Amino acid sequence: MRLRTLGVGGPLHGPVAHGLACGALLCVKNGFAWNAMAWHGSGYSEERRQLREWWGVATREDWLSALGDLLASESHSNAWEFALGLRRTIARDFGGHVDTGYWRQAVDNVIRGSSEGVTVITDAGVTKTEPRPESETEARIEGVQRLIGRITRYEARMRADGVLDENRYVSSADAWDLGRASNMARWGLGALFGTLKETESAVVQSGRKAALSYRSWQDFSAGFILGRCLHFDEEEFGSWYQDMVDAHRILMTEPGSPWLNIPFR
After folding, report:
1. In a 10 Å sphere around its CB, with 0-12 CB exposed, 13-18 middle and 19+ buried, how is residue 120 labelled?
2. 193-210, pLDDT tens digit by residue?
3. Which of 257, 191, 263 minimizes the C-alpha distance to 27?
4. What's the predicted TM-score (pTM) here?
5. Are 2 and 28 spatial neighbours (Cβ–Cβ below 8 Å)?
6. Helix (H) or strand (E) holding 88
C-alpha cells in the first residue's frame, strides 16, 4: 500500500484533481494512481466483472443509477445521517461537546414525537398522518441508540489512531458515498459504460459536494472510514478499518499527497 501519482497525464491541481483526491483512500488501498482519470484498473473484463459482482452494475443504465445515488449520498443508511445530523444540531445549538447520554435521549424524544402523527399541508388540504405502532417506535429508538454506541466506539478508536483529533467527532457519513462516487465514475469509464466527459463531471461533483459537507481532508477521511466500517466491519476493527487507517496516514503525511497539496475548500 503506497501513494501513486501520475506526474504526466493526470491533474494535480484544480476542481478535477480535488474530486479525484476524494477517492484517494481507495486508490491508495488498491494500488492505483489517485489522479488517473483515464481509468483502466485491472483491465476491461475485470472492471466489468467487479462492477457486476460488487455493485450489480451490468449496463450503462445501472452505472448511471449507482453513480447518481452515490453523488446524492443515498447509498448509505438514513439512520446514520439521522443520528449524526441530530448530534450536529445539538452541538451547533449548545456550543460544541455533546454528551452521549443526552444524544441518546434526544433520539428518544425526536422519534417518539414524530411517531405520534404530524399535521401536514398538501394540495388536497390539511391532513394528519397516522401514529406509528408503539412496538415500531420502540424498535426504532433501540436501533438508533445501538447505532450511537457503534459510532462513539469507532470515533474513540479513530482518536486513538490519530484519524480524529481529540474532542472531534464525525459530522456526516456522506464521505463514504462521495469517495466511492469519485471512484465509481472512473470504474464506469474503465468498463466503457461512460464517457470521459461524464466521468470528469461526476468527479468534480463529488469534490464540490464534499466541500459542502466537511471542513478538511481529515474530517472527510474520518467520515469515509466511519461509513465503511458501519457498512462492513461489525466492530471487528479488522482490515475494513485498518486498511483505511493505513491509507489515511499515507495521505496525511506523504509530501506528494493531494491532501497536503490541494486545498480542501
Report:
1. exposed
2. 999 999 999 999 999 999
3. 257
4. 0.91
5. yes
6. helix 78-94
